């Protein structure tokens, strides 16, 4: 007996979306790609057959396929209606960082469309949206997987969920949660050897490597880490109301804090950042004078309901000081594991490793729907 068809909509074809499409093209028994969208263009498999499907190679190949229906940007509700009318179960993969799309997850889920995403926004914004997402999933008998929202493809959320589901008591979660900030400090202030790299040049390199958020200020202002800790804290059972409900240390120079959040604002920020290199050089030198290095870390003290995000000095022979590249390290302290935490470590940013988490989530959803 052949398995019932599953239909897939993918929104976002940037660094993560492009790597995801390459992985999708190689998946055995992949769902049929019937929606592929970017900010101003949408490709659809023609109705009513939802066939032929969109080739899952890359945007350019898909966009050049003549049999598809092509349009400008569609409303999220229109995409939800299209997917819900397909002759089988449907899944949405959101590879954007768009909060407006994330706010529409309940619309998809109530229609029975499962959601897979690396987009942190929906899970770390107001607590009411978090609750609405999971209530809507239950109502629509749909699934929600978002492993790559924390630690990219590293098994961070699945590990925490397993600890909680099996009755362990998580007391503390701490570590380095930003691939960008890890790369910046590991390169700018290495624990072994020395570096004369300027802060702004390393920021530009992190952006070029695809580690940063679409707006790198979301990494430098600590909000990306705060969002990840909000997600972890909520899974650990804390009702964190929003990612700005606890103190966050920003690395944005005060003089650049009021630049607009537009594409032009990003360009102005990157152009002017070199003017402020001395500020971060000073932070590095202060740590160095104490024989230490500076790193950007976060922690959740579950019993005290306290979340902290910011800079800290570390001994040069510590695990955090010795991280390489864009590595994250996340330590789970629990009752069962005692004084020796369960540790997850590895690349925490980049298109391929993030897409791996998205593809692995997709496989899990497909297995559970079939
Ligand atoms: N990069 C990384 O290492 C990691 C990223 N993530 C998350 O993955 C997501 C994607 O990141 P990344 O690929 O780096 O980002 P990019 O900026 O490279 O790509 C974003 C994509 O989303 C599209 N897009 C944005 N808004 C909309 C919209 N409203 N409707 C349709 N398409 C839209 C853009 O369209 P267009 O092509 O037209 O501009 C683009 O294709 C983010 O949420 C990020 O936080 C998570 C973990 C690690
Ligand atoms: N910009 C983020 C990407 C992954 O979440 C980071 O650098 O960690
Ligand atoms: Na992860």
From TrEMBL:
List ligand-binding residues for NADP(+): 12-17
The entry marks the following residues as binding NADPH, namely 96, 120
The residues covered by the Aspartate/homoserine dehydrogenase NAD-binding domain are 12-147
List each copy of the Homoserine dehydrogenase catalytic domain by range: 155-363
Q: Which residues bind L-homoserine?
A: 213
The pathway this protein participates in, as annotated, is: Amino-acid biosynthesis; L-methionine biosynthesis via de novo pathway; L-homoserine from L-aspartate: step 3/3; Amino-acid biosynthesis; L-threonine biosynthesis; L-threonine from L-aspartate: step 3/5
In this protein, the active site sits at 228
What cofactor requirement does the entry state? Answer: a metal cation
Enzyme class, broadest EC rank:
oxidoreductase
One GO BP on record is: homoserine biosynthetic process
Q: What is its EC number?
A: 1.1.1.3
Could you tell me what reaction this enzyme catalyses?
Answer: L-homoserine + NADP(+) = L-aspartate 4-semialdehyde + NADPH + H(+)
What's its job? Catalyzes the conversion of L-aspartate-beta-semialdehyde (L-Asa) to L-homoserine (L-Hse), the third step in the biosynthesis of amino acids that derive from aspartate (the aspartate family of amino acids), including methioinine and threonine, the latter of which is a precursor to isoleucine; production of homoserine leads to a branch-point in the pathway as it can either be O-phosphorylated for processing to threonine, or O-acylated for processing to methionine.
Listed name of the protein: Homoserine dehydrogenase
Which species is listed as the source? Penicillium flavigenum
